[in-house]
């Protein structure tokens, strides 16, 4: 039969569905007490409620919990051999080492901003840059010490990476691409939300080993080759921890001072410190004496409501920000160039690119109404989508990294 080919897939899907349900429904994972009998299925498993709610379960915790449950039905004369088999299996799993910082961390394990953004790519980049800077990248852990929730985090990162080409492909569909793209994005966001729910339940696991002792492991570091430009970048950045100003919040006047300090104090540079200081003073004077409209200093999207935040589209963000400024009576205010922040400049760049893309889209639509053939307009539309893809998909990631890291 044709179904026989798909039996493994159907079985895997069934197991996944059962485990997901057990993780999501409170009490679903509680031990069941079957009728008295001599079979393994009828064996009564002791309640673990008194040891739950502790640190999230590791692979070794899962192995020992299962082994402890099965051990209750192993004949007494065979338990010693059974324990040796369990110990051998645990040692084999523990002998497999992984670079912990090569795997993604949960956003709450990096800093407050990554936790708020909950963008797995941003979290991964920020953590790895910090790991390169601090030397954590070379540290390894045994597979048995890896938490089960960390495996879910790998899945979440994978879905976030796949989301980019999926949305890009959807946006290339003629006529309905602008509708399909947010639908595809919403589907992937739903998968992430489900995975986060499962992960939150796994974080409340048990850390008891039953009759088995915790493994005492001494895991050596394993050197990871990193390109020198990446090392140089990591050394210039540090993870934002509340004690420094994130890159996104640096003002232009502060950037000038940082550049002045670097050029004037770094030995070996072919520059005249006196000339550097004179030029920096002149530039600071220009930045303080010239002003721009405050409406151009756009708020972060999360400050403008959930719709604007989810769309993250330059013209919409600008109009929403303008509405807030008018409501607050700030529409005619100005701000000195020296007080403009890095993220304000970045927002203006993305606004310009998004507006250009919008005008090209409108132009194609108008041309279609005037009778221009779709054989001409469709390739033009696809070329436009491809050309602006780096801004569409890369800008949110770069912004998130700038908001989560400081200059060293």
> What's the structural domain tally?
3
Strand order of the largest sheet: 1-2
Helix fraction bin: 55-70%
Total E-strand runs: 6
Question: Which structural class do the helices and strands define?
Answer: mainly alpha
If you compute it from the alpha carbons, what radius of gyration comes out, rounded to the nearest whole angstrom?
A: 28 Å
What is the ordering of alpha helices and beta strands? HHHEHHEHHHEHHEHHEHHHE
| Uncertain parts | 1-53
Quote the beta fraction. Answer: under 5%
Rounded mean pLDDT score = 82
Keywords: Signal
Signal peptide: 1-34
Summarize this structure briefly.
By secondary structure, the chain is mostly helical. It has 15 helices and six strands. Keywords: Signal.
Q: What do these coordinates show?
A:
This protein is mostly helical. The protein folds into three domains: 188 residues, no CATH class; 133 residues, no CATH class; 35 residues. The strands form three sheets. It has a two-stranded antiparallel ribbon with strand order 1-2. Strands 3-6 form a two-stranded antiparallel sheet. Strands 4-5 form a two-stranded antiparallel ribbon.
Chain-wise SSE layout:
Layout: H1 7-24, H2 59-71, H3 79-94, E1 97-99, H4 112-117, H5 120-134, E2 140-142, H6 148-171, H7 177-202, H8 228-235, E3 237-239, H9 252-265, H10 273-289, E4 291-293, H11 306-311, H12 314-328, E5 334-336, H13 342-369, H14 374-387, H15 389-404, E6 405-407
Antiparallel strand pairs: 1-2, 3-6, 4-5
Helix pairs in contact: 2-3, 5-8, 5-15, 6-7, 9-10, 12-13, 13-14, 13-15
């Amino acid at each position: 039969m044709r179904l026989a080919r798909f039996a493994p897939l159907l079985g895997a899907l069934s197991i996944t569905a059962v485990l997901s349900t057990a993780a999501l429904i409170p009490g679903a994972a509680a031990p069941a007490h079957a009728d008295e009998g001599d079979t393994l299925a009828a064996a009564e498993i002791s309640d673990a409620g008194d040891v739950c709610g502790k640190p999230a379960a590791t692979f070794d915790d899962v192995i020992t919990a299962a082994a402890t449950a099965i051990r209750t039905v192993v004949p007494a004369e065979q338990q010693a051999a059974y324990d040796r088999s369990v110990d051998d299996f645990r040692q084999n799993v523990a002998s497999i080492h992984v670079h912990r910082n090569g795997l993604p961390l949960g956003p709450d394990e990096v800093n407050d901003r990554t936790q708020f953004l909950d963008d797995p790519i941003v979290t991964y980049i920020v953590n790895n840059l910090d790991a390169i800077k601090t030397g954590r990248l070379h540290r390894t852990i045994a597979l048995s010490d890896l938490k089960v929730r960390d495996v879910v985090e790998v899945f979440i990162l994978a879905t976030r990476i796949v989301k980019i080409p999926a949305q890009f492909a959807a946006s290339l569909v003629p006529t309905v691409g602008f509708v399909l793209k947010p639908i595809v994005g919403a589907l992937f966001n739903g998968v992430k939300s489900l995975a986060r729910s499962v992960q939150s339940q796994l974080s409340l696991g048990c850390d008891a080993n039953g009759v088995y002792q915790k493994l005492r492991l001494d895991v050596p570091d394993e050197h990871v080759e990193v390109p020198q430009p990446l090392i140089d970048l990591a050394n210039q950045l540090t993870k934002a921890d509340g004690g420094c100003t994130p890159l996104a919040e640096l003002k232009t006047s502060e950037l000038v001072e940082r550049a002045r300090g670097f050029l004037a104090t770094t030995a070996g540079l072919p520059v005249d410190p006196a000339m550097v200081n004179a030029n920096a003073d002149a530039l600071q004077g220009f930045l303080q004496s010239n002003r721009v409209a405050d409406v151009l200093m756009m708020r972060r999207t999360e400050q403008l409501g959930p719709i604007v935040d989810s769309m993250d589209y330059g013209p919409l963000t600008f109009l929403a920000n303008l509405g807030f400024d008018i409501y607050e009576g700030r529409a005619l205010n100005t701000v000195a160039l020296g007080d403009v922040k890095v993220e304000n400049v970045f927002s203006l760049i993305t606004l310009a690119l998004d507006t250009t893309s919008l005008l090209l889209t409108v132009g194609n639509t108008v041309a279609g109404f005037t009778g221009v053939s779709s054989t001409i307009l469709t390739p033009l539309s696809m070329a436009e989508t491809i050309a602006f893809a780096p801004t569409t998909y890369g800008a949110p990631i770069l912004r998130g990294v700038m908001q989560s890291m400081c200059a060293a």
